[in-house]
Amino acid sequence: MKHWWKRAVYACILCLCLCCTACSANSQPDPAVLLRETLSQVNALESCESRFSNDLEFNAGTEQQTFHSAVSSVYFADPFCLKSTQDTGAGAPSVTYTMTEDGFCWFYAETEDGWLRTPAETLNTTPSEQIEILRLLKQATDPQFVREEEVEGTPAYKLEVTFPADILRSSIEAIVSASGMGDGSQTLVQELLASTPAVYGYCYIGKDDGRLLRMELDTTEALNTVFSKISGDSVKVSISKSVLTGELFNCNAAAPVELPPEAASAQTVEAAG
Question: What's the CATH number where 240 sits?
């Protein structure tokens, strides 16, 4: 019995160890800190590649409408360079380049008349302004931790985030214009935006490096809620799909970008305005 106190101490130590293990297993990162640290890394990127797509399908009366846009980008910070491939699903994708040459920034685009270049001296060349998914990330607020999962084999934290109503502006404008509702009035667009419910999406952040991997927004329900509030209009709108997705990859390891040889003789034109 004289060693009873030793057994009691061992039992207490074991109990403490088990409690610490349980607490560690149940702990989760602070979502606000995760999002803040991810945002803080954005403009430190030396290079990256991204994909971003927007798909919208709806019925206006008996007519079905489909809109699709996709952008793939390759970005370098110094010297600044951006290759952008845009695909609207109608015809061949278009490719543009924004390049720094001898200290000046130029925008290159191929037209029916050949290659043209336009000065872009005032362009904000930071990643957060030039990469679609990063512009989306800047608007995300009120992060909530969902769970840990993998994004194409990479361990990640999944966060639910909230977006401002203006995230739906381009979709609402497209629906109003295509349906002829209110003769495409911008006043109507603003009124519809004012009635927008909370818009939620998901943000995936790398568990090991804290970098953004992917973002997803399904705004189908929010848009249906908006257009269901319209009364007295002869055109009834039903949205079957409204999805935005974006991916960021090859951070600081993007594939090199070279201006096509035929663009070397591009005609210089002044920017409009």
Answer: 2.50.20.20
